[in-house]
Amino acid sequence: MAEEITFKCLRCGYEYKGLYDKKVPEERTCPKCGSNSIRPLPQKKEKS
Amino acid sequence: MMDVGRHPNIKLLAYSEVEEVTGYIGNFHIKVRRKARYVDEEACTACEECVKVCPEIRPDEHQLGFATRKAIYIPFAQAVPAAYLINMEDCLGNNPIACGKCAEVCDPKCINFDQQDEFVEFDVGVAITATGMDVYDPTILDEYHYTKYENVITSWEYEILTGPGYVTKGELLRATDRKLPKSIAFIQCVGSRSEKRGNPYCSNICCMNTIKDTLYLKDHHPEMECVVFYMDIRAFGKGYEDLYKRSKARGVKYIRGIPGDVVEDPKTKNLIVTVENTTTGKIERHEFEMVVLSVGVIPRPETEQIQRALTLSKTPDGFLMESHYQLNPIDAPTGGVFLAGCCESPKDIKSSVIQASGAAGRAETLLSAGKVKVEAITSTIIPDLCKSCGICADACPYGSITVDIKAKTPAIVVDAACKGCGTCGAECRFGAITMKHFTDNQILAMIDAMLEEKPEEKICAFACNWCSYAGADLAGLSRMQYPPNSRLIRTMCSGRVDEKFIWHAFKKGAPVVLVSGCHFVDCHYIDANRWTQKRVEKIWNQMERKGIRPERLQLEWCSAAEAVKWTKVMHAVEEIRKAVTKDEIEETKKILSAE
Known about the structure:
Largest sheet of chain A: 3 strands, antiparallel
CATH topology of the largest domain in chain B: FAD/NAD(P)-binding domain
Number of helices of chain A: 0
Strand order of the largest sheet of chain A: 2-1-3
Shape of chain A: globular
CATH class of the largest domain in chain B: Alpha Beta
Largest interface: A-B, 13 and 20 residues
Oligomer: heterodimer
Helix content of chain A: under 10%
CATH architecture of the largest domain in chain B: 3-Layer(bba) Sandwich
Largest sheet of chain B: 5 strands, parallel
Strand order of the largest sheet of chain B: 10-17-11-12-13
Structural class of chain B: alpha/beta
Order of helices and strands of chain A: EEE
Number of strands of chain B: 27
Strand content of chain B: 15-25%
Radius of gyration of chain A: 11 Å
């Protein structure tokens, strides 16, 4: 299931939100600098 | 098909389904279910006496319900073999016993109600997949009211209504008054080229099919008003532009714009089409006696079964994936399997014939050679280290690794099927897979040599053989400048870049590491570079946890033609390298050495 997460470009540092599905890998490109070093930032677990 | 049926060297198994395929190139074992026909196809003379007495009438699926058939029938006029079959569900209905009237009148006594499905097994060296295509169902597109208005039909239904071998004997008739329509509209791209309203891809054949239909109408009914609503006309094949021009010259009107609404006049049953003419920018209304929806092409549902049986891959649109879309468009990723026709992508008859001829040629080349050239760079299992976890088998894009997880026996690599991407070796956690000519020790030695002197000044880059390395090569050949402190290690695929190579480079003082491979669509090993991305994402998280900046590991997809991109990437990576201080490198070395 795709969920909305934050991606961070490890070249220019730009952060943006997008859909992420672990099971469906897709080529990601930074909308600002065009780099493919896009890191899906780990989701912070909510405190119960 | 008749020629196939008669050919002495071709065994045709009609009304059958592939149940299971095992083995590999040159050694496939296939199990086929031959569905019970309840008619002896050898003895049946297709005399039609059985049909005359059969009381069960059903819609004829082949004629899309425009005609009827009996429970005993031949699926379509040109079917090979020309023998009847009984649809037992239609025959029995709610009755437990068949009426038997067909058996009573059958002179050759070829009807057998006790016939059961049979399984046939045989060995083959190669397989060709040609499962064809289906058409898009426009029912969900409310604006066209396809199932509500009888005079709105699909392009497939139009073929049935104009085909000489079908129910109307080639006479185009409106459903509401059984008369020839005086005006007809064709709406293009129904279910195609739309993310939200159907499928995102172009179905390739619809434009030319409509042009052909309009020419047919103008030949037979010159007075008929024909209008085509379109986005773009894609007439790109040999002679196609000429056909398009002929169609326009014959008086067919082409309006650029896809209608947003079709409404029926309750009295005349005519259809009012509302469209924004994008050439004039005006909203227009046109009245027609018939509307034809030019529906797109979709993969057949059976494709999934074949895909599973032959361990093939699918593209996101559901069609079977070829080994490489430019360089190997006929071969399937699985060795010894070839693709022909619309199972691979929507295509017209000419393109299907070309691909089928190519597939037959590829198959014949392999069969006549009787042997397969194995890649020199294949993976090898070290049985003593293998824990039979099965990760290598999951990672292999070619299904060339088999492992019995329950029996805990070491994995086996079929050399004939392995293409040498090395993804299995990189994914194996136990070091149980080595790749000929690209062993761990060889690559680690290259890293050592690269970082032996002044490591803080080096850019450590892993580049895949087919795209990134070739892109770097092109940059060099084109005399493009990129940082001279770049050091490249070539692997066949970025999937071979083991995480231990990256950690080793950082441990040896590398300020920055670049992993580079083909763009997803270009991957020469189907989807091996998806494993690269997954692995790099994992390492980024680990780096952060260890207190190492993830920015120091860069990932880039670069094709063989992207020399400019390669130079830009290397300059950007050089900027990242410059920002890494000696203290930071020493700290990283300390962190990694302490583990």
